[in-house]
Write a structure and sequence with these properties.
The protein is of the alpha/beta class. Helix content is 24%, strand content 20%. Helix 2 crosses helix 9 (345-361) and helix 6 runs antiparallel to helix 9. Mean pLDDT is 79; it is low at 1-48, 53-59, 252-258, 451-505 and 526-534. Its cofactor is Zn(2+).
Protein backbone atom coordinates (compact mmCIF):
# COMPACT_ATOMS: atom_id res chain seq x y z
CA UNK A 1 0.00 0.00 0.00
CA UNK A 2 1.15 3.53 -0.73
CA UNK A 3 0.41 6.73 1.13
CA UNK A 4 -0.56 10.11 -0.25
CA UNK A 5 3.03 11.28 0.18
CA UNK A 6 4.29 8.63 -2.22
CA UNK A 7 4.13 8.54 -5.97
CA UNK A 8 2.58 5.57 -7.72
CA UNK A 9 4.23 4.09 -10.78
CA UNK A 10 1.36 2.95 -12.96
CA UNK A 11 2.76 0.03 -14.89
CA UNK A 12 1.41 -0.48 -18.38
CA UNK A 13 2.16 -3.95 -19.69
CA UNK A 14 2.57 -4.09 -23.46
CA UNK A 15 2.52 -6.96 -25.89
CA UNK A 16 6.29 -7.27 -26.23
CA UNK A 17 6.83 -7.56 -22.48
CA UNK A 18 7.79 -3.92 -22.04
CA UNK A 19 6.13 -1.64 -19.54
CA UNK A 20 6.54 2.01 -18.77
CA UNK A 21 5.87 4.05 -15.68
CA UNK A 22 3.79 7.20 -15.38
CA UNK A 23 3.59 9.50 -12.38
CA UNK A 24 0.18 9.22 -10.72
CA UNK A 25 -0.98 11.31 -7.74
CA UNK A 26 -2.75 8.94 -5.38
CA UNK A 27 -4.85 8.76 -2.25
CA UNK A 28 -4.28 6.61 0.80
CA UNK A 29 -4.66 2.86 0.46
CA UNK A 30 -4.51 2.61 -3.34
CA UNK A 31 -2.82 -0.67 -4.13
CA UNK A 32 -1.11 -1.44 -7.41
CA UNK A 33 -0.08 -4.98 -6.57
CA UNK A 34 0.21 -6.54 -10.00
CA UNK A 35 -0.71 -10.09 -9.04
CA UNK A 36 -3.88 -9.18 -7.11
CA UNK A 37 -6.36 -8.34 -9.83
CA UNK A 38 -10.00 -9.20 -9.27
CA UNK A 39 -10.93 -7.44 -12.50
CA UNK A 40 -8.56 -9.17 -14.92
CA UNK A 41 -10.54 -11.18 -17.40
CA UNK A 42 -9.80 -14.90 -17.20
CA UNK A 43 -8.53 -16.07 -20.55
CA UNK A 44 -6.86 -12.72 -21.29
CA UNK A 45 -4.00 -13.46 -18.93
CA UNK A 46 -3.03 -16.95 -20.06
CA UNK A 47 -4.12 -20.41 -21.02
CA UNK A 48 -6.47 -22.47 -18.91
CA UNK A 49 -8.79 -19.64 -17.84
CA UNK A 50 -11.80 -20.78 -19.85
CA UNK A 51 -15.30 -21.52 -18.60
CA UNK A 52 -15.66 -25.13 -17.57
CA UNK A 53 -17.62 -27.58 -19.67
CA UNK A 54 -21.20 -26.39 -19.63
CA UNK A 55 -23.25 -28.91 -17.68
CA UNK A 56 -26.16 -26.86 -16.35
CA UNK A 57 -28.33 -28.09 -13.54
CA UNK A 58 -31.54 -28.71 -15.45
CA UNK A 59 -33.44 -30.29 -12.57
CA UNK A 60 -35.60 -27.18 -12.20
CA UNK A 61 -35.60 -25.99 -15.82
CA UNK A 62 -36.39 -28.47 -18.56
CA UNK A 63 -35.76 -27.91 -22.24
CA UNK A 64 -39.35 -27.03 -23.05
CA UNK A 65 -41.05 -23.79 -24.00
CA UNK A 66 -42.31 -21.77 -21.07
CA UNK A 67 -45.41 -19.64 -21.51
CA UNK A 68 -45.64 -16.37 -19.61
CA UNK A 69 -47.11 -17.94 -16.48
CA UNK A 70 -44.50 -20.70 -16.39
CA UNK A 71 -41.69 -18.22 -17.02
CA UNK A 72 -42.95 -15.99 -14.21
CA UNK A 73 -43.07 -18.92 -11.80
CA UNK A 74 -39.54 -19.95 -12.71
CA UNK A 75 -38.13 -16.44 -12.29
CA UNK A 76 -39.83 -15.93 -8.93
CA UNK A 77 -38.73 -19.32 -7.63
CA UNK A 78 -35.17 -18.69 -8.78
CA UNK A 79 -34.81 -15.32 -7.08
CA UNK A 80 -36.30 -16.82 -3.90
CA UNK A 81 -33.78 -19.66 -3.99
CA UNK A 82 -30.77 -17.50 -4.90
CA UNK A 83 -31.38 -14.13 -3.17
CA UNK A 84 -27.66 -13.32 -3.02
CA UNK A 85 -27.17 -13.71 -6.77
CA UNK A 86 -30.47 -12.64 -8.34
CA UNK A 87 -33.03 -9.87 -8.26
CA UNK A 88 -36.27 -9.80 -10.24
CA UNK A 89 -37.93 -6.62 -11.45
CA UNK A 90 -40.29 -5.49 -14.20
CA UNK A 91 -39.62 -2.59 -16.57
CA UNK A 92 -43.31 -2.28 -17.47
CA UNK A 93 -46.16 -4.19 -19.04
CA UNK A 94 -47.09 -5.29 -22.53
CA UNK A 95 -50.21 -4.03 -24.27
CA UNK A 96 -52.15 -6.97 -22.84
CA UNK A 97 -50.78 -6.43 -19.34
CA UNK A 98 -48.03 -9.03 -19.14
CA UNK A 99 -45.02 -8.06 -17.03
CA UNK A 100 -41.76 -7.39 -18.86
CA UNK A 101 -39.56 -9.26 -16.40
CA UNK A 102 -35.85 -8.63 -15.97
CA UNK A 103 -33.61 -10.84 -13.88
CA UNK A 104 -30.36 -9.40 -12.55
CA UNK A 105 -27.66 -12.02 -12.04
CA UNK A 106 -24.66 -10.70 -10.14
CA UNK A 107 -22.75 -10.90 -6.88
CA UNK A 108 -24.44 -7.54 -6.20
CA UNK A 109 -27.94 -7.99 -7.65
CA UNK A 110 -29.66 -5.18 -5.74
CA UNK A 111 -27.04 -2.45 -5.86
CA UNK A 112 -24.85 -0.95 -8.54
CA UNK A 113 -21.21 -1.93 -8.09
CA UNK A 114 -19.06 1.19 -8.31
CA UNK A 115 -16.75 1.04 -11.29
CA UNK A 116 -18.22 -2.20 -12.63
CA UNK A 117 -20.36 -2.33 -15.78
CA UNK A 118 -24.01 -3.18 -16.32
CA UNK A 119 -24.75 -5.34 -19.36
CA UNK A 120 -27.96 -6.81 -20.75
CA UNK A 121 -29.54 -9.43 -22.95
CA UNK A 122 -32.98 -8.98 -24.52
CA UNK A 123 -34.91 -11.84 -26.09
CA UNK A 124 -38.14 -12.38 -28.00
CA UNK A 125 -38.57 -8.83 -29.37
CA UNK A 126 -40.33 -10.66 -32.19
CA UNK A 127 -42.82 -12.94 -30.47
CA UNK A 128 -42.46 -15.84 -32.91
CA UNK A 129 -38.65 -15.95 -32.53
CA UNK A 130 -38.75 -18.11 -29.44
CA UNK A 131 -35.31 -19.74 -29.13
CA UNK A 132 -33.65 -16.67 -27.58
CA UNK A 133 -36.34 -16.54 -24.90
CA UNK A 134 -35.48 -20.07 -23.73
CA UNK A 135 -31.73 -19.56 -24.11
CA UNK A 136 -31.91 -16.64 -21.70
CA UNK A 137 -33.78 -18.68 -19.11
CA UNK A 138 -31.10 -21.36 -19.34
CA UNK A 139 -28.43 -18.66 -19.18
CA UNK A 140 -29.87 -17.55 -15.83
CA UNK A 141 -29.91 -21.15 -14.63
CA UNK A 142 -26.34 -21.78 -15.68
CA UNK A 143 -24.92 -18.63 -14.11
CA UNK A 144 -26.46 -19.17 -10.70
CA UNK A 145 -25.63 -22.88 -10.50
CA UNK A 146 -22.03 -22.36 -11.64
CA UNK A 147 -21.07 -19.42 -9.41
CA UNK A 148 -19.47 -21.57 -6.73
CA UNK A 149 -17.90 -24.14 -9.06
CA UNK A 150 -16.64 -22.25 -12.13
CA UNK A 151 -13.96 -19.56 -11.52
CA UNK A 152 -14.75 -17.86 -14.82
CA UNK A 153 -18.43 -17.45 -13.95
CA UNK A 154 -17.54 -16.30 -10.45
CA UNK A 155 -15.24 -13.66 -11.91
CA UNK A 156 -17.95 -12.52 -14.34
CA UNK A 157 -20.63 -12.16 -11.66
CA UNK A 158 -18.24 -10.55 -9.17
CA UNK A 159 -17.34 -7.85 -11.69
CA UNK A 160 -20.49 -7.40 -13.77
CA UNK A 161 -24.22 -6.86 -13.29
CA UNK A 162 -26.05 -8.90 -15.93
CA UNK A 163 -29.64 -7.89 -16.69
CA UNK A 164 -31.65 -10.50 -18.62
CA UNK A 165 -35.02 -9.70 -20.21
CA UNK A 166 -36.18 -13.05 -21.64
CA UNK A 167 -39.26 -11.72 -23.45
CA UNK A 168 -39.88 -8.17 -24.64
CA UNK A 169 -42.93 -9.29 -26.62
CA UNK A 170 -44.87 -11.78 -24.47
CA UNK A 171 -48.14 -10.95 -26.26
CA UNK A 172 -46.64 -11.88 -29.61
CA UNK A 173 -45.22 -15.07 -28.14
CA UNK A 174 -48.67 -16.06 -26.90
CA UNK A 175 -49.98 -15.73 -30.47
CA UNK A 176 -47.15 -17.79 -31.99
CA UNK A 177 -47.09 -21.50 -32.74
CA UNK A 178 -44.35 -24.02 -31.98
CA UNK A 179 -42.92 -25.71 -35.07
CA UNK A 180 -43.37 -22.68 -37.33
CA UNK A 181 -40.01 -21.82 -38.85
CA UNK A 182 -41.13 -18.99 -41.13
CA UNK A 183 -43.95 -16.51 -41.43
CA UNK A 184 -45.07 -13.60 -39.32
CA UNK A 185 -47.72 -14.98 -36.95
CA UNK A 186 -46.87 -13.57 -33.52
CA UNK A 187 -43.99 -11.41 -34.79
CA UNK A 188 -45.66 -8.15 -33.81
CA UNK A 189 -47.08 -6.94 -30.52
CA UNK A 190 -50.82 -7.22 -29.94
CA UNK A 191 -51.43 -3.91 -31.73
CA UNK A 192 -49.65 -5.10 -34.84
CA UNK A 193 -46.43 -3.10 -34.38
CA UNK A 194 -42.96 -4.47 -35.08
CA UNK A 195 -41.09 -3.52 -31.91
CA UNK A 196 -37.75 -3.59 -33.74
CA UNK A 197 -39.02 -0.83 -36.05
CA UNK A 198 -40.47 1.26 -33.24
CA UNK A 199 -37.50 3.15 -31.78
CA UNK A 200 -36.33 6.67 -32.66
CA UNK A 201 -34.06 6.61 -35.70
CA UNK A 202 -31.01 8.74 -36.39
CA UNK A 203 -31.19 8.61 -40.18
CA UNK A 204 -34.91 8.94 -40.86
CA UNK A 205 -37.88 10.23 -38.93
CA UNK A 206 -39.83 7.33 -37.46
CA UNK A 207 -43.51 8.24 -37.39
CA UNK A 208 -44.73 4.94 -35.98
CA UNK A 209 -46.67 5.35 -32.74
CA UNK A 210 -44.47 4.32 -29.83
CA UNK A 211 -45.63 1.17 -28.06
CA UNK A 212 -45.67 0.38 -24.31
CA UNK A 213 -42.96 -2.26 -24.74
CA UNK A 214 -40.74 0.21 -26.60
CA UNK A 215 -41.32 2.95 -24.04
CA UNK A 216 -40.41 0.53 -21.26
CA UNK A 217 -37.05 -0.22 -22.89
CA UNK A 218 -36.33 3.46 -23.51
CA UNK A 219 -37.02 4.33 -19.86
CA UNK A 220 -34.98 1.33 -18.71
CA UNK A 221 -31.82 2.21 -20.59
CA UNK A 222 -32.20 5.85 -19.64
CA UNK A 223 -32.07 4.86 -15.96
CA UNK A 224 -29.26 2.31 -16.20
CA UNK A 225 -26.14 3.08 -18.21
CA UNK A 226 -25.54 -0.19 -20.02
CA UNK A 227 -22.16 -0.76 -21.61
CA UNK A 228 -22.94 -3.78 -23.77
CA UNK A 229 -26.09 -5.48 -25.01
CA UNK A 230 -27.18 -8.44 -27.11
CA UNK A 231 -30.61 -8.82 -28.69
CA UNK A 232 -31.50 -12.45 -29.49
CA UNK A 233 -33.48 -13.15 -32.67
CA UNK A 234 -34.30 -16.14 -34.89
CA UNK A 235 -34.61 -16.92 -38.58
CA UNK A 236 -30.91 -16.72 -39.47
CA UNK A 237 -27.50 -17.61 -38.07
CA UNK A 238 -25.43 -14.43 -37.88
CA UNK A 239 -24.26 -11.63 -35.58
CA UNK A 240 -25.44 -8.34 -37.08
CA UNK A 241 -23.98 -5.02 -35.95
CA UNK A 242 -24.86 -1.32 -36.42
CA UNK A 243 -25.82 0.62 -38.28
CA UNK A 244 -29.08 -1.02 -39.31
CA UNK A 245 -30.10 2.06 -41.26
CA UNK A 246 -28.40 4.33 -43.75
CA UNK A 247 -29.07 7.84 -45.01
CA UNK A 248 -28.84 6.55 -48.58
CA UNK A 249 -31.29 3.64 -48.48
CA UNK A 250 -33.55 3.73 -51.51
CA UNK A 251 -36.44 1.42 -52.48
CA UNK A 252 -36.17 -1.05 -55.32
CA UNK A 253 -38.76 0.34 -57.73
CA UNK A 254 -39.48 -3.08 -59.20
CA UNK A 255 -40.16 -4.70 -55.85
CA UNK A 256 -43.74 -5.23 -54.76
CA UNK A 257 -42.44 -5.68 -51.21
CA UNK A 258 -40.77 -2.24 -51.21
CA UNK A 259 -37.42 -3.76 -50.23
CA UNK A 260 -34.28 -1.64 -50.25
CA UNK A 261 -30.90 -1.61 -51.88
CA UNK A 262 -28.48 -3.03 -49.31
CA UNK A 263 -25.16 -1.35 -48.68
CA UNK A 264 -22.90 -1.10 -45.63
CA UNK A 265 -23.54 1.67 -43.12
CA UNK A 266 -20.59 1.67 -40.75
CA UNK A 267 -20.29 3.30 -37.33
CA UNK A 268 -17.18 5.13 -36.08
CA UNK A 269 -16.70 2.09 -33.82
CA UNK A 270 -16.82 -0.42 -36.67
CA UNK A 271 -13.66 -2.18 -35.45
CA UNK A 272 -15.24 -2.75 -32.04
CA UNK A 273 -18.57 -3.94 -33.42
CA UNK A 274 -16.85 -6.38 -35.75
CA UNK A 275 -14.82 -7.71 -32.83
CA UNK A 276 -17.92 -8.12 -30.65
CA UNK A 277 -19.74 -9.91 -33.46
CA UNK A 278 -16.78 -12.18 -34.14
CA UNK A 279 -16.52 -12.96 -30.43
CA UNK A 280 -20.03 -14.38 -30.56
CA UNK A 281 -19.67 -16.08 -33.94
CA UNK A 282 -16.27 -17.65 -33.24
CA UNK A 283 -17.42 -19.15 -29.94
CA UNK A 284 -20.61 -20.51 -31.50
CA UNK A 285 -20.66 -24.11 -32.67
CA UNK A 286 -21.63 -23.19 -36.26
CA UNK A 287 -22.12 -19.47 -36.80
CA UNK A 288 -18.59 -18.59 -37.93
CA UNK A 289 -18.86 -20.99 -40.88
CA UNK A 290 -21.18 -18.48 -42.53
CA UNK A 291 -23.40 -21.16 -44.06
CA UNK A 292 -26.76 -19.96 -45.36
CA UNK A 293 -29.84 -21.33 -43.60
CA UNK A 294 -31.56 -21.96 -46.94
CA UNK A 295 -30.52 -22.02 -50.57
CA UNK A 296 -32.31 -18.73 -51.14
CA UNK A 297 -30.90 -17.10 -48.00
CA UNK A 298 -27.68 -15.08 -47.91
CA UNK A 299 -24.49 -16.49 -46.45
CA UNK A 300 -22.36 -14.36 -44.13
CA UNK A 301 -18.57 -14.36 -44.17
CA UNK A 302 -17.30 -15.43 -40.74
CA UNK A 303 -20.88 -15.41 -39.49
CA UNK A 304 -21.17 -11.63 -39.11
CA UNK A 305 -22.68 -8.78 -41.10
CA UNK A 306 -23.30 -5.07 -40.97
CA UNK A 307 -27.02 -4.61 -40.47
CA UNK A 308 -27.64 -2.24 -43.36
CA UNK A 309 -25.49 -4.38 -45.66
CA UNK A 310 -27.91 -7.24 -44.97
CA UNK A 311 -31.03 -5.10 -45.30
CA UNK A 312 -31.68 -1.56 -44.01
CA UNK A 313 -34.41 -0.90 -41.49
CA UNK A 314 -35.74 2.15 -39.68
CA UNK A 315 -36.41 2.25 -35.94
CA UNK A 316 -34.14 -0.59 -34.86
CA UNK A 317 -33.25 -1.13 -31.22
CA UNK A 318 -29.49 -1.61 -31.67
CA UNK A 319 -28.97 1.72 -33.44
CA UNK A 320 -31.02 3.44 -30.73
CA UNK A 321 -28.91 1.90 -27.95
CA UNK A 322 -25.70 3.02 -29.59
CA UNK A 323 -26.55 6.53 -30.79
CA UNK A 324 -28.80 7.69 -27.95
CA UNK A 325 -27.15 5.97 -24.99
CA UNK A 326 -23.64 4.91 -26.01
CA UNK A 327 -24.48 1.23 -25.39
CA UNK A 328 -22.94 -1.16 -27.90
CA UNK A 329 -25.67 -3.59 -28.92
CA UNK A 330 -25.39 -6.45 -31.40
CA UNK A 331 -28.30 -8.37 -32.93
CA UNK A 332 -27.73 -12.11 -32.50
CA UNK A 333 -29.65 -14.34 -34.89
CA UNK A 334 -29.32 -17.70 -33.15
CA UNK A 335 -31.53 -20.15 -35.06
CA UNK A 336 -32.50 -20.77 -38.67
CA UNK A 337 -35.97 -21.82 -37.55
CA UNK A 338 -37.86 -19.12 -35.68
CA UNK A 339 -39.93 -21.43 -33.44
CA UNK A 340 -38.42 -24.93 -33.70
CA UNK A 341 -39.80 -27.98 -31.87
CA UNK A 342 -38.93 -28.04 -28.17
CA UNK A 343 -36.82 -31.19 -28.52
CA UNK A 344 -34.24 -29.09 -30.42
CA UNK A 345 -33.75 -26.58 -27.60
CA UNK A 346 -30.92 -28.47 -25.93
CA UNK A 347 -28.99 -28.40 -29.21
CA UNK A 348 -29.45 -24.63 -29.46
CA UNK A 349 -28.26 -24.20 -25.88
CA UNK A 350 -25.18 -26.29 -26.58
CA UNK A 351 -24.45 -24.22 -29.70
CA UNK A 352 -24.84 -20.81 -28.03
CA UNK A 353 -23.89 -21.12 -24.36
CA UNK A 354 -20.17 -20.34 -24.70
CA UNK A 355 -20.86 -17.44 -27.07
CA UNK A 356 -23.38 -15.90 -24.70
CA UNK A 357 -20.90 -15.80 -21.83
CA UNK A 358 -17.84 -14.76 -23.81
CA UNK A 359 -19.80 -11.91 -25.40
CA UNK A 360 -20.72 -10.38 -22.03
CA UNK A 361 -17.12 -10.53 -20.82
CA UNK A 362 -16.18 -8.08 -23.59
CA UNK A 363 -17.66 -5.30 -21.45
CA UNK A 364 -14.33 -5.42 -19.59
CA UNK A 365 -12.32 -4.48 -22.65
CA UNK A 366 -11.17 -0.92 -23.39
CA UNK A 367 -11.22 2.07 -21.06
CA UNK A 368 -13.15 2.88 -17.91
CA UNK A 369 -12.82 5.47 -15.21
CA UNK A 370 -14.23 8.46 -13.38
CA UNK A 371 -14.71 12.13 -14.20
CA UNK A 372 -14.23 14.26 -11.07
CA UNK A 373 -14.20 17.85 -9.94
CA UNK A 374 -11.06 19.23 -8.20
CA UNK A 375 -12.36 18.06 -4.81
CA UNK A 376 -12.81 14.47 -5.94
CA UNK A 377 -16.57 14.71 -6.37
CA UNK A 378 -18.18 12.86 -9.28
CA UNK A 379 -19.44 14.81 -12.28
CA UNK A 380 -22.72 13.37 -13.55
CA UNK A 381 -23.70 13.49 -17.23
CA UNK A 382 -20.31 14.68 -18.43
CA UNK A 383 -20.17 14.17 -22.18
CA UNK A 384 -17.30 12.08 -23.52
CA UNK A 385 -16.06 11.16 -26.96
CA UNK A 386 -13.11 9.28 -28.37
CA UNK A 387 -11.37 11.60 -30.84
CA UNK A 388 -12.19 10.50 -34.36
CA UNK A 389 -15.29 8.62 -33.20
CA UNK A 390 -18.25 10.97 -33.24
CA UNK A 391 -20.76 8.86 -31.29
CA UNK A 392 -20.36 9.91 -27.67
CA UNK A 393 -21.25 8.58 -24.25
CA UNK A 394 -21.71 10.06 -20.77
CA UNK A 395 -20.92 9.53 -17.12
CA UNK A 396 -23.22 8.04 -14.50
CA UNK A 397 -24.32 9.88 -11.37
CA UNK A 398 -21.16 8.50 -9.77
CA UNK A 399 -18.98 9.99 -12.50
CA UNK A 400 -18.27 6.57 -14.02
CA UNK A 401 -17.73 5.86 -17.69
CA UNK A 402 -16.87 2.87 -19.85
CA UNK A 403 -16.00 2.45 -23.52
CA UNK A 404 -15.18 -0.79 -25.29
CA UNK A 405 -12.11 -0.25 -27.47
CA UNK A 406 -9.54 -2.36 -29.25
CA UNK A 407 -5.83 -2.08 -28.33
CA UNK A 408 -4.27 1.20 -29.45
CA UNK A 409 -3.59 4.83 -28.56
CA UNK A 410 -6.56 7.17 -28.16
CA UNK A 411 -7.55 10.67 -27.06
CA UNK A 412 -10.54 11.14 -24.77
CA UNK A 413 -12.46 14.41 -25.12
CA UNK A 414 -14.44 15.40 -22.01
CA UNK A 415 -17.06 18.15 -21.71
CA UNK A 416 -19.12 19.11 -18.66
CA UNK A 417 -21.23 22.16 -17.86
CA UNK A 418 -19.27 24.63 -15.77
CA UNK A 419 -15.89 23.02 -16.47
CA UNK A 420 -13.06 23.59 -18.90
CA UNK A 421 -13.09 20.90 -21.65
CA UNK A 422 -10.29 18.34 -21.41
CA UNK A 423 -8.40 16.16 -23.87
CA UNK A 424 -6.63 13.15 -22.36
CA UNK A 425 -4.29 10.72 -24.12
CA UNK A 426 -4.39 7.08 -23.10
CA UNK A 427 -3.56 3.60 -24.33
CA UNK A 428 -5.61 0.40 -24.40
CA UNK A 429 -3.92 -2.98 -24.12
CA UNK A 430 -5.30 -6.46 -24.68
CA UNK A 431 -4.92 -7.99 -21.26
CA UNK A 432 -7.17 -5.82 -19.10
CA UNK A 433 -9.15 -2.57 -19.03
CA UNK A 434 -7.45 0.79 -18.72
CA UNK A 435 -8.52 2.94 -15.76
CA UNK A 436 -8.49 6.63 -16.62
CA UNK A 437 -9.47 9.17 -13.96
CA UNK A 438 -10.05 12.69 -15.28
CA UNK A 439 -10.11 15.76 -13.05
CA UNK A 440 -11.99 18.73 -14.52
CA UNK A 441 -11.24 22.36 -13.65
CA UNK A 442 -14.09 24.88 -13.20
CA UNK A 443 -14.42 27.33 -16.06
CA UNK A 444 -14.86 30.18 -13.56
CA UNK A 445 -13.55 29.10 -10.14
CA UNK A 446 -15.03 30.93 -7.13
CA UNK A 447 -12.65 33.62 -5.77
CA UNK A 448 -12.46 31.95 -2.36
CA UNK A 449 -12.06 28.40 -3.65
CA UNK A 450 -9.12 26.63 -2.02
CA UNK A 451 -6.46 25.20 -4.29
CA UNK A 452 -7.24 21.49 -4.58
CA UNK A 453 -4.57 19.06 -3.51
CA UNK A 454 -3.13 16.63 -6.01
CA UNK A 455 -4.57 13.79 -3.98
CA UNK A 456 -8.23 13.10 -4.76
CA UNK A 457 -10.64 11.70 -2.24
CA UNK A 458 -12.45 9.76 -4.96
CA UNK A 459 -9.47 7.49 -5.47
CA UNK A 460 -9.91 6.15 -1.95
CA UNK A 461 -13.62 5.65 -2.48
CA UNK A 462 -13.01 3.81 -5.73
CA UNK A 463 -10.69 1.37 -4.00
CA UNK A 464 -12.96 0.97 -1.00
CA UNK A 465 -16.15 0.25 -2.92
CA UNK A 466 -15.12 -1.44 -6.14
CA UNK A 467 -11.89 -3.14 -5.03
CA UNK A 468 -10.71 -2.90 -8.63
CA UNK A 469 -7.05 -2.63 -9.44
CA UNK A 470 -6.81 -2.22 -13.22
CA UNK A 471 -3.79 -0.62 -14.79
CA UNK A 472 -3.94 3.12 -14.10
CA UNK A 473 -3.27 5.68 -16.80
CA UNK A 474 -2.86 9.07 -15.21
CA UNK A 475 -4.27 12.20 -16.77
CA UNK A 476 -1.08 12.93 -18.70
CA UNK A 477 -1.92 16.60 -19.20
CA UNK A 478 -1.94 17.14 -15.44
CA UNK A 479 1.23 15.20 -14.65
CA UNK A 480 4.26 17.23 -13.63
CA UNK A 481 7.82 16.14 -14.46
CA UNK A 482 10.14 15.39 -11.61
CA UNK A 483 13.88 15.83 -11.21
CA UNK A 484 14.28 12.93 -8.81
CA UNK A 485 16.01 9.68 -9.67
CA UNK A 486 14.23 7.83 -12.44
CA UNK A 487 13.25 4.21 -12.81
CA UNK A 488 12.26 2.32 -15.93
CA UNK A 489 9.76 -0.45 -15.35
CA UNK A 490 10.28 -3.55 -17.42
CA UNK A 491 7.88 -6.44 -16.99
CA UNK A 492 9.75 -9.73 -16.71
CA UNK A 493 7.16 -11.95 -15.03
CA UNK A 494 4.24 -11.78 -12.63
CA UNK A 495 4.45 -10.02 -10.24
CA UNK A 496 6.03 -7.06 -12.00
CA UNK A 497 9.71 -6.47 -11.24
CA UNK A 498 11.15 -2.96 -11.36
CA UNK A 499 14.65 -2.62 -12.75
CA UNK A 500 16.70 0.55 -12.53
CA UNK A 501 18.02 2.06 -15.72
CA UNK A 502 21.43 3.78 -15.79
CA UNK A 503 21.22 7.10 -13.97
CA UNK A 504 22.18 9.02 -17.09
CA UNK A 505 19.78 7.16 -19.39
CA UNK A 506 17.25 8.86 -21.63
CA UNK A 507 14.38 6.78 -20.30
CA UNK A 508 11.89 7.20 -23.16
CA UNK A 509 14.67 6.19 -25.54
CA UNK A 510 15.72 3.44 -23.09
CA UNK A 511 12.26 1.90 -23.37
CA UNK A 512 12.12 2.36 -27.12
CA UNK A 513 15.40 0.51 -27.53
CA UNK A 514 13.90 -2.39 -25.55
CA UNK A 515 10.72 -2.57 -27.62
CA UNK A 516 9.87 -3.74 -31.09
CA UNK A 517 6.95 -3.98 -33.51
CA UNK A 518 3.61 -2.52 -32.45
CA UNK A 519 4.85 -1.82 -28.93
CA UNK A 520 7.65 0.34 -30.28
CA UNK A 521 5.22 2.28 -32.48
CA UNK A 522 2.92 2.95 -29.51
CA UNK A 523 5.79 4.08 -27.27
CA UNK A 524 7.16 6.30 -30.02
CA UNK A 525 3.84 8.11 -30.19
CA UNK A 526 3.81 8.72 -26.43
CA UNK A 527 7.53 9.31 -25.95
CA UNK A 528 7.34 13.03 -25.25
CA UNK A 529 4.49 12.64 -22.72
CA UNK A 530 5.98 10.04 -20.37
CA UNK A 531 6.96 11.04 -16.85
CA UNK A 532 9.38 8.93 -14.78
CA UNK A 533 9.98 9.02 -11.05
CA UNK A 534 10.88 6.90 -8.03
Amino acid sequence: MLTTKQTVLAVVTLCAGIAFAIQVPTSDQISITSNDRSDVLPGFGGAGDEPRAYRPDTSSLDFVYHNHEDMTRYLRATTARYPNLTALYSIGKSVQGRELWVMVVSASPYEHMLGKPDVKYIGNIHGNEAVGRELLLHMIQYLITSYTTDPYIKWLLDNTRIHILPSLNPDGYAASKEGTCDGGQGRYNSRGFDLNRNFPDYFKQNNKRSQPETEAVKEWINKIQFVLSGSLHGGALVASYPYDNTPNARPLLSSVFNSYVSQPSLTPDDDVFKHLSLTYANNHAKMSRGVACKSASPSFENGITNGAAWYPLTGGMQDYNYIWHGCMEVTLEVSCCKFPPAYELRKYWDDNQLSMIKFLAEAHRGVQGFVMDPNGGPIERAQLKIKGRDVGFSTTKYGEFWRILMPGVYKLEVFADGFVPRDVDFMVVEQHPTLLNVTMQPSKPPPSSPVPSESSGLGERIDEHSQQKPTIFTDLLAAQPTTTARTAAITTSSPTVFKSAPSNADLPQYLLNSANGTTKEILQGLKDRLVFTN
